Amino acid sequence: QLTRTLNEMIGRLEESFNAVLQFSGDAAHEMRTPLTVMRGEIEVALRHQRTDGEYRSVLESILQETEQLGSIIDNLLLLSRMDTRSDSFIFGDGSLDRIIMESYEEVLPIAVEKGVSISIESLEEISIRCEAGLLKRLFVNLMHNGVKYTAPGGSVTCRLDLNPVSGAARFTIRDTGVGIPGRNLPRIFDRFYRVDPSRSARTGGKGLGLTIVKKILDLHGGAISVESVPGAGTVFTLD
Ligand code: ADP
């Protein structure tokens, strides 16, 4: 009995060591890409004397890459804070409908620019104990993904409903986008996981958005489920 328990424990430890190793490898790889791009741009620019306009365009491109790098680091720091110091977040009474409205207003200009319509179909007034900043990040991530993975002309619709029996809140977000193949669905909440890395590279995605969504929900005792039909769209349901 003891041998079996010990073996199981060693197995679990080995799994978590491997996960840590895999994670540092992935993180290093993701951060090296923008650095390589920056280095290449600088080296090419330094090869000859350039015009002011050319220097400016190199600096603009480097600025973009540093923004990418900054956003990866911010996301990793947030994940690590949620993993190791979750008691450092201050929870209070928050209005879910207001947080959703604010998130919507933040994503709206991005949707308008892309030609994707985003709307809120219903919005019950619901108050819960939460960390409002984290919840806003969660809704923005989901709405932004909806817009990112939906072609111009498509739509993203959100609803916040109250279950009359249980009194629990349910948030649903539905898009008419590219969808996610069934075999990829179980992994979309993993760190750095992207269904189609080339598509995500174009949209600037690093595969951390849904990991953060899931972690924030865990901290609030919530759950997320997803249904998707490739080519037709995706629905995320949060309870
Ligand atoms: P990313 O930053 O790459 O968007 P996420 O963690 O937010 O990373 O999402 C992981 C992957 O799940 C994405 O690369 C994308 O392929 C897929 N995905 C997420 N949301 C949607 C959606 N609404 N429609 C289609 N695919 C999605």
Explain what you see.
By secondary structure, this protein is an alpha+beta fold. Helices cover 56% and strands 18% of the residues. Bound molecules: adenosine-5'-diphosphate (ADP). Adenosine-5'-diphosphate binds next to helix 4 and helix 6.
The proportion of strand residues reads 15-25%
- Lateral strand order in the biggest sheet: 2-4-5-7-6
Rg for CA atoms: 21 Å
Q: List the helices and strands in order.
A: HHEHEEHEEHHEE
Discrete helix count: 6
Tell me briefly what this model is.
The chain has six helices and seven strands; from the N terminus they run ααβαββαββααββ. It has 239 residues and is an alpha+beta fold.
Please outline the helices and strands.
Blueprint: H1 2-47, H2 52-84, E1 92-95, H3 96-114, E2 117-123, E3 127-130, H4 132-148, E4 155-162, E5 169-175, H5 197-203, H6 209-219, E6 224-229, E7 233-238
Parallel strand pairs: 2-4
Antiparallel strand pairs: 1-3, 4-5, 5-7, 6-7
Helix pairs in contact: 1-2, 2-6, 3-4, 4-6
Keywords:
single chain; globular; about 20% strand; binds adenosine-5'-diphosphate; 7 strands; alpha+beta; about 240 residues
